[in-house]
């Protein structure tokens, strides 16, 4: 997987597998010229709290046209969703080992006023790269391509809330509420980051070494 260039959609605090693929790749392209899809991780993330999995969705403005490119999708200011999302994250992860080390960085992004969903997602992606010291070249697509040739791994539709069981086999890691809820796989990168901290890098390396990804290797 390390010699591949991966193509990924722009996702909101994407599942850990998304970042594991980037970590173990040669280079990454973020797709921003695809048509926006509802009920996807583009504007949704999932976290593991005291009562189990919780889904957080960003409201978007209704596009003028039926088909709207991801790069043109605007965030709606309807409701106090930024405050609600951040409070939900605090509730879920305040007792995790590493939350206090990262909370200021994430809170700062929630306090900013982003107009476009892609820009909001990228602020988080850039932050996670910095916190985990992921040094991989990242570029944005300039046009939409239906398929890519040899040397590329097209993972644009790999991560989806409705296709979790076929995405990846995720080995368990420490979760603060695991004794109560059991291990909950395929959570947002927040989950493993707040529970394992920088040891997330070692977890990503182990995923590569044991070839745990069952699709698009």
What does this molecule look like?
The chain is of the alpha/beta class and 217 residues long. It has one domain (5-209). It contains seven helices and six strands, in the order βαβββαααββααα. It has helices at 16-23, 81-93, 99-111, 117-131, 178-181, 189-196, 200-209, and strands at residues 5-9, 27-31, 44-49, 52-57, 138-140, 152-154. The strands form two sheets. The protein has a four-stranded parallel sheet with strand order 5-2-1-6, covered by helices on one side. Strand 1, helix 1 and strand 2 form a beta-alpha-beta unit. The radius of gyration is 17 Å and the shape is globular. The model has no long low-confidence stretch (mean pLDDT 91).
Features:
217 residues; alpha/beta; four-stranded parallel sheet; two-stranded antiparallel ribbon; globular
Shape: globular
String of helices and strands: EHEEEHHHEEHHH
Number of domains: 1
Strand order of the largest sheet: 5-2-1-6
* Average residue-wise pLDDT: 91
Number of helices: 7
- Give the end-to-end Cα distance, rounded to a whole number of Å: 6 Å
Helix content: 25-40%
Structural class: alpha/beta
Percent of residues in beta strands? 5-15%
Q: What would you report as the Rg, rounded to the nearest angstrom?
A: 17 Å
What is the β-strand count? Answer: 6
Largest sheet: 4 strands, parallel
């Amino acid at each position: 997987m390390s010699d591949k260039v991966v193509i990924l959609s722009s996702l909101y605090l994407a599942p850990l597998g998304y970042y594991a693929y980037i970590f173990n790749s040669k280079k990454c392209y973020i797709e921003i010229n695809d048509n926006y899809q509802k009920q996807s991780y583009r504007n949704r993330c999932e976290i593991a709290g005291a009562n189990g999995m919780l889904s957080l969705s960003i409201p978007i403005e209704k596009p003028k046209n039926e088909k709207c490119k991801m790069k043109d999708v605007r965030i709606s200011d309807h409701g106090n969703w930024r405050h609600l999302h951040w409070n939900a994250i605090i509730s879920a992860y305040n007792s995790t080992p590493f939350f206090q080390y990262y909370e200021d960085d994430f809170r700062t992004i929630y306090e900013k006023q982003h107009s476009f969903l892609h820009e909001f997602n990228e602020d988080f992606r850039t932050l996670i790269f910095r916190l985990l010291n992921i040094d991989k070249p990242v570029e944005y697509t300039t046009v939409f391509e239906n398929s890519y040739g040899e040397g590329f791994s097209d993972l644009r539709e790999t991560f989806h809330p409705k296709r979790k069981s076929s995405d990846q086999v995720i080995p368990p890691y420490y979760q603060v509420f695991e004794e109560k809820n059991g291990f909950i796989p395929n959570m947002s990168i927040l989950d493993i980051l707040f529970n394992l901290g920088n040891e997330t890098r070692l977890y990503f390396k182990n995923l590569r070494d044991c070839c745990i990804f069952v699709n698009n290797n």
